[in-house]
Amino acid sequence: MKILIIGGGNMGLTYAQSFLRSHITSKEDMMILEKSPQKAEELMQRDIGTVYGRPEDCIRQSDLVILAVKPQDAPVLFDIIRPLIDPQQVFLSIMAGVKLQTIAKGLGAEKIIRAMPNLPAQIGMGMTAFTSSESVTRIELVMVQNLLNTTGKTVYVEKEEAIDAATAISGSGPAYVWFFMKSMMDAAQDMGFNQSEAELLVSQTFRGAIELFNKTDFTCEEWIVKVCSKGGTTEAALASYEQNLVRDDIMAGAKAALLRATALGKAE
Ligand SMILES: NC(=O)c1ccc[n+]([C@@H]2O[C@H](COP(=O)([O-])OP(=O)(O)OC[C@H]3O[C@@H](n4cnc5c(N)ncnc54)[C@H](OP(=O)(O)O)[C@@H]3O)[C@@H](O)[C@H]2O)c1
Fold it and tell me: Which residue of 19, 145, 173, 214 is surrounded by the most CB atoms within 10 Å?
């Protein structure tokens, strides 16, 4: 299967490297279309497939076209490639906020899959939600899911609105985690640890808590009960969080992200 990635930036490169690393495709079947000559040169040096500068040289040969340009570059890209595509080709878009219908209309194509990855995809620890238009077959969907799985875990959602919700949870989510980590690092430094000690204490604590959660059947609440002893230190911290409505604030943050994702989708 020949794969063409349009846009060899951060995500385009992440996908190309993940597919090759997992041997799901070969360099011979990997094509990248990049408009910036400087980036194209850098991609060629990496030896991850054939790099093209002109869409007419690569679009028709590909079984799957991955759209990995910035959302604001989508209208121009659609205009350029619309006359070149085969309407039966499968398109996978990772462009944030660009709807299935917009892509279908822009390209004059029917088989569209829309995915929302997140940054840890760069290290194979990503979380991707994806959905598709009705014309995509089960086989095509499985083929694309296998590719997406090389960057981490995936979930298929029936309703496109769930992509906005995934954007608010897993798409933006790494930043929420880093925000919480930074707050704990600041607290550690206030208590006398130096920066590197604070980073170690906090990052290893997050890592351990997440691994423990993933490797057992206990819920977050059950783990909290296990850590808290009556009148102890953890209970004191959690009581302060409750009193300061930290949980409500975290939920409000995620909901603000959802509102923004929905508004950006409507503004297209
Ligand atoms: N980064 C993330 O974590 C993340 C998460 C979820 C979704 N996404 C989505 O992934 C997409 C790519 O993001 P990114 O961070 O990888 O962007 P990026 O680094 O800017 O890469 C996009 C590349 O596409 C090139 N390009 C633009 N128009 C083109 C065209 N017509 N033909 C060929 N190449 C073209 C750009 O070249 P120029 O620089 O010359 O314009 C740039 O090299 C975005 O739509 C974003 O919403 C990203």
Answer: 19
**Could you tell me if the CB of 106 is within 6 A of ligand 1?**
no
Other Cβ atoms closer than 10 A to 264: 15
129 and 61 belong to one structural domain:
yes
The residue whose CB lies within 8 Å of the most ligand 1 atoms, and thus the one to mutate among 70, 82, 114, 118, is 70
Number of separate domains in the chain: 2
Q: Cα separation of 191 and 193, whole Å? A: 6
* 7 and 93 within one domain: yes
Residue ending a domain, choose from 142, 166, 190: 166
Print the domain residue range for 257: 173-267
39 lines ligand 1 (CB under 6 A): yes
Helical spans, DSSP H, in 7-97: 10-21, 37-46, 74-81
Cβ atoms of 89 and 111 within 8 Å: the answer is yes
Pair 136, 37 in one domain: yes
Q: What is the pTM of this model?
A: 0.93
- Cβ of 163 less than 6 Å from ligand 1: no
Q: Is 94 in the pocket of ligand 1 (CB under 6 A)?
A: yes
Domain's final residue, options 135, 166, 197: 166
